[in-house]
Amino acid sequence: MGITLKRNGITISRHKRDELEERINSIVLEEEGFSEKSLETLQGIKNYYGKLLAPKILQQLDRILCEKLKDLVKKQCLLFPNKKILGECLSLITFFAEENNQKKNSLLAEILSAYTSEKLEKRKGKPKKEKKPKQPKPPKPKKEKKPKEVDNTPPLPKGPVIAIVLMAVSLFAFVMIVTNLLGYQANLSQAKEKYEQGSYVEAYRKLQGLSIKERDEKLYHQLATLAAVSEKYQAYLVFDNYGSKIDALDALVCAYGRYDLNQKNAKEYGCEDQLEKIGGKIIKALLKDYDMTGDEALDIYQTRKRDDYTVKLHQKLKELGLG
Questions:
Q1: Separation of alpha carbons 90 and 94, rounded Å
Q2: Which pLDDT tens digit goes with each residue over 100-143?
Q3: Degrees (nearest 5) of the Cα angle 197, 201, 202?
Q4: Which H or E run contains 144?
Q5: Shortest CA distance to 251 belongs to which of 277, 282, 278, 225?
Q6: DSSP string over 268-298
Q7: Which of 32, 36, 63, 232 is deepest in the core (most CB within 10 A)?
Q8: Half-sphere exposure at residue 99, Cβ-oriented, CA atoms within 13 angstroms
Q9: Do 265 and 303 contact (CB within 8 A), yes or no?
C-alpha cells in the first residue's frame, strides 16, 4: 500500500507520494466551479490520510494543492468575471492538514491574488485581432451519384428480433436503476456526514441534481435553508481575509438578510438551532467589523435598487474610515 510504520511515525513511499500528487493534480476547475469528481477526490484523500499521516507530510500535500489551485485560477481566470464568484468556488476546498484549515482564508486570499494578477496581465497583453480578407473559394465540382445497389438479403424474423430488443432494454433499465440507487445512497451518506460537521454548503451540493426521495425531503430542505445562509457567510470570511472590504460587507449583509428570511423555514424543517448558530456568527461579525446591528444590515439588504444598495454600503465604509 506504500504506507510504513516507523519509530518516528507513519510515512509513505515515494511511489505513494507521486500517486497522491497525481490525484491532486487531476482536479478540474470549470465555469460552474470545481467538478464534483474533483471535490470527491480531495475529500477522499483527506478522509483516508488526514488522521493517518504526520502533519509534516500533510503540509507537503497542501503545498502541492495550493500550487495546483494557483495554476488553475491563472489558466481559467477569464472564465470568472470577478474574484467574488471565484472566492465562493474556492471556499468549498478543504485542506489536508488541520493547521491549514484554520488559516484557510489566508491561503485562499493568496490564490485569489494570483487570479487578479494573471487577469490583469492577460487584459494588458491581449492583442487586437485583425480580420483577414476572405479569398473567393473555387467552385466545387459536382459529384456524380452512384446508382443504389439492390439489397437482396432476406429480412430477419420479427419475433426473435423483438424479444432480443426487449431483453436489452430491460437489462439496460435494470443497470440504470441499480447504478442510480447506489449513487443516490452514497451522496446521501456524504451529505449527512457533512451536515453533522456543519459544512452545509458542501452537504447541499451532494444532493443537488438528485431526485430526492420522500423520506429524505426534510434533510434536503434543512440543507437548502442552512446552505443559503452559510454560503454568504463563508464568502464574507474569504473577502475579509483578502482585504476587499466592499465585497466582504456585501456578503455579510446578504448573509444576515438570508438569515432573517429563513427563520420560518428553519422552524418548519427543524433546524432552528443550526440556523441560530450561523446567525450568531453573522451578528458578531457585523458588530465587530462594521459597528452595525442586524436591523441596519436588514435595512440595507431590503434596498430595492442595486445602485442605492451599493451607495449605502460605500456610505457605511466611509463612516468607519474604511471606504
A1: 9
A2: 888 888 899 999 988 888 888 877 765 555 566 666 666 666 66
A3: 65
A4: none
A5: 282
A6: HHT-HHHHHHHHHHHHHHHHHHH---HHHHH
A7: 232
A8: 10
A9: no
